[in-house]
Here is the input.
Amino acid sequence: MNSSGGRRQEAAGPRRRAHKPREQDRDVQLSKALSYTLRHGALKLGLPMGADGFVPLGALLQLPQFRSFSAEDVQRVVDTNGKQRFTLQAGDPGIGLLIRANQGHSLQVPELELMPLETPQALPLMLVHGTFWRHWPSILIKGLSCRGRTHIHLAPGLPGDPGVISGPLQALYAGAPPLPCTEPRTPACLSLITTTHTPQAPAPLSP
Here is the structure.
């Protein structure tokens, strides 16, 4: 009895693994679908996109990949996204809500309401690009590259500083001027700042 009971308990064990709440899984799925559609796929999917990157939420929810989601689901994902990836706002009468991705586009979005910083005097004292330490050898040789996107993302400080939104597991932060992504940034533009995630990293480098 004990032996067979033990086998039954072992067999049942793997089935008891903890799972994330279903709503959280759906929110992650929705966030990823929104990111692809609003940053890269809107035109291919036939969505009307304005020069400011906004698309009608009603039209987006008619796409097959969004039909299981509601406007309330989208509102929740927009409100709870830690990186503030999306903006949701009221459109003209008869259009309803509009949604856009705030950054990361490979599509050309000419009116993202970004302020050009065209002189050294206009730049903050520190600008930081977050990436993984394994990418540093390539950055050292080739500079920062937009890799098919329109801009290189920069923050005015390190993770934890006021106004800085950072993703997890970033192991290297290289400050560089926030220039449009027309060419890779050269190593001459970079200064290296290491974090506790890279305990064997070299000492900080000067530009």
Observations:
- The chain has two domains: 20-101, 120-194.
- The radius of gyration is 22 Å.
